[in-house]
Amino acid sequence: MHELSIAEAIVERAAETARLHGGGRVTAVRVRVGELAGVVPDALRFSFELARAGTALESARLVVRDVPALARCAPCGGDFAVGSPPSMWCPRCDELSRELLGGRELEVTAIELEEASG
C-alpha cells in the first residue's frame, strides 16, 4: 500500500511547514487527488491516521478533494469525463483524445496552522 509512504511524506512536509512558521500546531492538511493518480482516497485517509500518530500532527485532519479525470477532444472541442476504467474516446464524435485536462493530480494545496502561543 503506497498510500502509507505518501501519507508519511505529507506528515513530514506539514510538520516542516509548521516548524518554519513558528511551531504552530497543524490543524488540517488539504490535498487534491486525481482519479487517475493511482491513489485510493480512503486508503490515504487511513494511512494519514497511522502516519500522524505520535507526531506534531496528532490531531490534524486530512481533507481530500477528489479531482475527476477530464479530457478534451481536439476534433470537436468538447470536454468529457475519462471515467474508470479510463477511456480517451470522445463520446460525442468517437475520436481518440490525446489531451488530458486533469485527473493525475496528487498535491498538497494547503497546510492549516494554529498560531503558536506565547
TrEMBL record:
Top-level taxon: Bacteria
Single annotated GO MF: zinc ion binding
Binding site for Zn(2+): C73, C76, C90, C93
Xref: InterPro entries: Hydgase_Ni_incorp_HypA/HybF_CS (IPR020538), HypA/HybF (IPR000688)
One BP annotation, GO: protein maturation
Alphabetically ordered keywords of this record: Metal-binding, Nickel, Zinc
Residues bound to Ni(2+): H2
Gene3D superfamilies cross-referenced by the UniProt entry: 3.30.2320.80
HAMAP family reported in the protein's UniProt record: HypA_HybF
Function: Involved in the maturation of [NiFe] hydrogenases. Required for nickel insertion into the metal center of the hydrogenase.
Family according to the record: Belongs to the HypA/HybF family.
Name listed for the protein in its UniProt record: Hydrogenase maturation factor HypA
Organism: Streptomyces luteoverticillatus
Name of the gene encoding the protein in the UniProt record: hypA
